[in-house]
Design brief:
Elements lengths: L7 E3 L20 E3 L19 E3 L31 E3 L21 E3 L19 E3 L8 H11 L5 E4 L6 E4 L15 E4 L4
Parallel strand pairs: 1-2, 2-3, 3-4, 4-5, 5-6, 6-7
Antiparallel strand pairs: 7-8, 8-9
């Protein structure tokens, strides 16, 4: 069918809170954009094994976690059903924690954009070993220096970390700029222009 060949689906700005999809009808889907809607949960997403890019900017997400039912032996909902995901964009939501990432099979995730949330603590990133770009800018946690050191230790492959720094509107940390330095000295912070 024609649906079986759909690779990209754009449903942004639909003012929808619709959270249930029929992934079996879109087995080849590689990119899904549901930005600028009213999504509050990921639990309605089924198994999307080919999905590489998921954009959920400017929704109402409060958590990335989906709790499996006690009798569900093969849970494939939410992030559990996206094992090939490489880019996750949850910018401008209502997230306070990144809880759920540590349980998800996101072994291929390379880019995580979570700016403009109400994140109070940076954690649950330890299994994202392929992560290269991480955006946690604006409204970031209170224990920032300690948290940033922890992120660098748990994600040795990180090449770009965007965050909020006191006195700067944005800052970038690029660990590769000090090649050959010790792990505690492998990057520099840079002032960056403000985003509108």
């Amino acid at each position: 069918t024609r649906q079986a060949n759909v690779l990209q689906l754009l449903l942004a700005k639909q003012a929808t809170s619709r959270e249930h999809f029929a992934p079996s009808e879109l087995p080849a889907l590689r990119e899904l954009n549901l930005s600028h809607n009213l999504m509050s949960s990921l639990k309605g997403f089924g198994y999307l094994p080919q999905l590489k890019i998921l954009r959920l900017r400017d929704n109402r997400l409060e958590t990335l976690f989906c709790k499996p039912a006690p009798d569900d032996k093969n849970f494939r909902r939410g992030l559990f059903g996206m094992p090939g995901l490489e880019l996750l964009d949850v910018t401008q939501n209502q997230l306070q924690y990144l809880y759920g990432l540590q349980y998800s099979p996101l072994k291929e995730l390379k880019m995580l954009f979570a700016a403009n949330n109400e994140i109070v603590k940076i954690e649950h990133l330890e299994k994202l070993r392929q992560l290269r770009e991480l955006d946690l800018s604006k409204k970031l946690c209170h224990d920032q220096p300690t948290a940033l050191r922890a992120v660098l230790l748990m994600l040795p492959g990180l090449t770009s970390l965007k965050y909020r720094q006191p006195g700067l509107k944005h800052a970038f940390f690029q660990p590769h700029l000090l090649a050959g330095g010790s792990r505690g000295q492998r990057g520099q912070a840079h002032d960056a222009p403000a985003e509108d």
